[in-house]
Amino acid sequence: MSTMNRTRLWHRFAALPVLALAAAVLPAPAATAATATAAAPPEAVLELPEPGGPYRVGVTDLHLVDRHRADPWVPERRRELMVSLWFPAASRGGTPDRYVSAAESRAILTEFGMTDVPADLLSGVRVHARTGVRPLARPGGWPLVVLSPGFSQPRSSLTSLAEDLASRGYVVAGVDHTYEAAAVTFPDGRVAGCSVCRLEEAGKLDQEYLVRGRAQDISFVLDELTRRRTGVRVDADRIAVVGYSVGGAAAAAAIQRDRRIDAGANIDGTFFPAITKDLGRPFLMIGSDLDRGAANDPTWAASWAHLTGWRRWLTVTGSTHGSFPDYGVIGDQLGLPSPPLSGERATEITRQYVAAFAGRHLRHHPSPLLNGPSADYPEVVFER
């Protein structure tokens, strides 16, 4: 498959979960109206799963500006990022966070061509982190996990994974890569849309350029979180980067360029480019069964050969590319048809295996889950 076609697949796969959400509220053809109504009751409650760790979760947003770097897509501007920072909270209190604003929901749905659905559909999703709460102090700071989302998807699309990791004792930085997400809202009210999506649609997007830029974004976020006071202390000696889809390619690029990163993970993303130099630090690959099987993406096999440190390649049976971000579990709650593996189950598997990976390599905890097949998660196949 050409790199141009793979880029178009990014966009199509990223859109699938939202297209499914929209199906819940679009008028059904007469032959299927009863089925659609039964499957997607209007009173459906949209809520992300409860975090699985012992800590309450707080969240705050950071507005970061790299004064030393031009924006890769709008060179007349400095590179400007919005980052959500999830963390273990000292107490409950505060205010429930919102998943996305009504304006952001509208932009996300519009980006996927869903203009005949309630514009605020995604703004009603309930989350568990709270704003306005104090971080729980820890001597030396908390281990840090940076999350990079899929192409055209905002940082909010990985909220379930972020909340779960924070509840287990990590600071989690979800990065919005400006002009690469459907909507990035800045503190002054400006909203940056996905101008890069227009390049992709025209077949003019250089994927390797995009991934290099994301890796630079991640390094800049590390600079800011380890050198400045944000109110949340991180341990600069324990850092992992995890990405989904093109964010997974960015995680691979970031760990290769930045020695501060101790471990990396690619969740179902083509490597742009494949890893060609030996990488001795831990790396985890989690792939979908139906879209990224062991034989379906040559960049996975090519990269695997150069992972010379701890490594795992896991395939989640019954999953598709769209199974891993939040939209899969939201679709379940709307009663929509799902892949063989439900969104709820895919979310549980993703959380458990990423947490085991972070625990093993940032906390040096035993992680039997990563040693081989598990009776608790028979869907997870250990490749190679």
Question: How is this structure best described in words?
Answer:
The chain has 384 residues and is of the alpha/beta class. The protein has one domain (3-21, 43-382): Rossmann fold. Helix content is 32%, strand content 22%. It contains ten helices and 13 strands. It has helices at 3-23, 33-39, 102-111, 159-167, 195-201, 207-227, 246-257, 298-304, 327-333, 343-362, and strands at residues 57-70, 78-88, 95-98, 126-131, 142-148, 171-176, 184-185, 191-192, 234-244, 263-267, 283-288, 311-316, 380-382. The strands form three sheets. It has a nine-stranded mixed beta sheet, with helices on both faces. A two-stranded antiparallel ribbon has the order 3-4. Helix 4 (159-167) links the parallel strand 5 and strand 6 (171-176). The radius of gyration is 20 Å and the shape is globular. The two termini are 23 Å apart. Residues 1-41 have low confidence and may be disordered.
